Amino acid sequence: MRASSLILLGGLALAAAKSCTSMEDCSLNGICTCHHTCRCDPGWTGSNCGKLDLQPVERWTGYNNTNFTNPDFYREGGGNSSWGGQIIHDREDKGLFHFIASQFKHGCGLSAWRPFSQVIRAESRTGPRGPFIWKQTLFDTFRHNPTVVWSPADEKYLIHFIGQDWETPDVCRSTKTNNTISVSTSPDLKEWTEQIPLVVNVTNPTAWPLWTEDDHTPEMLLASEKNNIYYSPTGYAGPYNLTVEPGNIEIHPSMRSEDPFLWRDKRGHWHFLVHHMADIPLGLKGPRVGAHAFARDWRGPWTYENETLAFDAFVDFTDGGRTEYYRRERPKLYFSEDGEMTPLYLVNGVQEFGNISAYTLVQPIGEAWKAYEDALGR
Ligand SMILES: *[C@@H]1O[C@H](CO)[C@@H](O)[C@H](O)[C@H]1NC(C)=O
Ligand SMILES: *[C@@H]1O[C@H](CO)[C@@H](O)[C@H](O)[C@H]1NC(C)=O
Ligand SMILES: *[C@@H]1O[C@H](CO)[C@@H](O)[C@H](O)[C@H]1NC(C)=O
Ligand SMILES: *[C@@H]1O[C@H](CO)[C@@H](O)[C@H](O)[C@H]1NC(C)=O
Ligand SMILES: *[C@@H]1O[C@H](CO)[C@@H](O)[C@H](O)[C@H]1NC(C)=O
Ligand SMILES: *[C@@H]1O[C@H](CO)[C@@H](O)[C@H](O)[C@H]1NC(C)=O
Ligand SMILES: *[C@@H]1O[C@H](CO)[C@@H](O)[C@H](O)[C@H]1NC(C)=O
Ligand SMILES: *[C@@H]1O[C@H](CO)[C@@H](O)[C@H](O)[C@H]1NC(C)=O
Fold first, then answer.
1. Which residue is closest in CA terms to ligand 3's atom 6?
2. Does the pTM exceed 0.85?
3. Are strands 228-232 and 241-244 parallel, antiparallel or unpaired?
């Protein structure tokens, strides 16, 4: 009697883990089929489509200049450390990919990110995995965590970042500054003409225009730390109102996160990829570092997936190596350009164990990135 009910319970648990009844059970990253199993969209995997289908990384792609040194460096071992960035395909020159990233001045490492961080632009003519080559400093110290989005309503790029003008000290040392989000605009990513400070006085911005093919609205969403979503009816210059409150997602310590990255998918549903901080209370930086949250409507209700994580601190390399990173944060995705919003690459700021330096990793996702690169003529 007891044994058979245990077997029955076990069977139910197995069925429960795999069966779905709605698209929410498939993390809004796939379809729940008539067999009650999820059919995941390309790039997503796992029984609930909550995991990124991450592929091995080729070494020395992305943006890794940690072995560089310069006469103006205050110390050795930091290189040109960087901490995350965003890949953007040039709108006219189809062989060109831009990379807008946070990079630390004077060879300082991650621990001195504030105030040594600048916003820089790098370029690749070898595809979206790079390696990206440094081209220019866009915003001097202290500027950090840029996020770039094309605004169809304004026909220009918007860059949101944190920071303010700040003289750096003459040693690599952390300083407390106000973070506050500013926005600047550009037609081509090279010249940034306008800067509106203090759009909202919080940290870690991620923006998405509400413009669609059918509705040419100027309305903007600007999300930030804790996945709060600010809304502006009039466009990127604001004023913004906090519209989605933190409690909607962050209702439990296991859902503590930072560094949100917001997007709307091909079905019009909404997603966040975040730096998941479940191991911080244990005194660790990982390995549980990447989570996904989703909602049909940006106003919510939002579901934060704290069981099946989107990514972790382990990365496989094409040479057969495997690295567990000390820190892996600042997630951003690069999507296909065919309207399907297939994630092709995951970008993260990473730091190895025992290093002061940091760099930016670009990891391919699923299968679609290969055809994408073939079409570029790589
Ligand atoms: C990044 O550069 C460091 C040397 O500064 C090297 O040890 C490491 O393997 C590189 N990582 C990747 C992923 O290219
Ligand atoms: C850094 O490593 C890359 C890749 O191995 C190499 O091409 C480059 O010359 C190295 N730079 C320095 C300064 O050692
Ligand atoms: C490092 O950054 C400086 C600007 O701070 C730039 O001049 C230099 O070319 C960069 N080097 C590499 C290898 O990215
Ligand atoms: C932070 O902002 C407040 C209000 O704008 C200002 O009074 C204060 O001086 C700022 N702190 C720093 C370190 O700039
Ligand atoms: C921004 O927020 C910080 C920290 O909460 C505060 O010290 C500062 O005064 C605020 N600045 C403005 C202009 O409100
Ligand atoms: C922000 O909210 C306030 C109070 O609800 C309202 O009066 C104001 O019109 C709103 N502003 C925007 C830009 O939505
Ligand atoms: C996920 O969150 C729920 C609360 O909603 C909590 O009970 C559960 O322990 C969390 N799971 C993990 C793995 O932290
Ligand atoms: C990290 O430290 C190891 C051992 O000192 C070194 O071989 C490696 O190049 C360092 N990696 C980076 C990214 O600086």
1. 134
2. yes
3. antiparallel
